[in-house]
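Forum > Structural Biology > Help requests

Title: Can anyone predict the 3D structure of GNAT family N-acetyltransferase?

Hi all, first post here. I have the sequence for GNAT family N-acetyltransferase but no way to get a structure on my laptop. I'd be grateful if someone could post the structure tokens.
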Amino acid sequence: MIANTFLQDIDEVFNLYKTASDFKKTVSGVQWPDFDRNMIETEIKENRHWKIMVDGHIACVWSITFDDLPVWGDRNTDSAIYIHRIATNPNFRGQKFVEQIAGWAKQFAAENNKRYVRMDTTAGNPRLTGYYVQCGFSHLGSKKMGNAEGLPSHYHKATMELFQLEA
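Reply #1:
Sure, ran it for you. Structure tokens for GNAT family N-acetyltransferase below:
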């Protein structure tokens, strides 16, 4: 079941981020930073943070935004939603959550008059890139980031892989 994340879920959300970050480091050598709690609380309060529930447990989380200028540049003017920070509980890996998120996001984007669903990930994990394409996203290529002001630190001077799905 897909639902909005609640403030009372925030400790579990941060546990999932930590677990996902540790896993990400073993796969690609890149680790997520500690995310700002106020940023996550704001996403939750604005109904932009989501979860997949399985048997009463949070199995996966992600957030969305309607603007991502530092990453998407000129393309940011397109009508799109942007998915960020997909993190899966390791006890629920292999359940094709990105496919579920892609289907949900297409519908959510259409209901909000958006043409595209977009996301990015740090370069260096070809298996993940292939999985995102398998889930229906087009791989639009790589983008070398600059200082990435206003974004979490893992964007700073990173190379990002960009993905898009038509809603």
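The chain has one domain: 2-166. The chain has a mean pLDDT of 89.
Shout if anything looks off.
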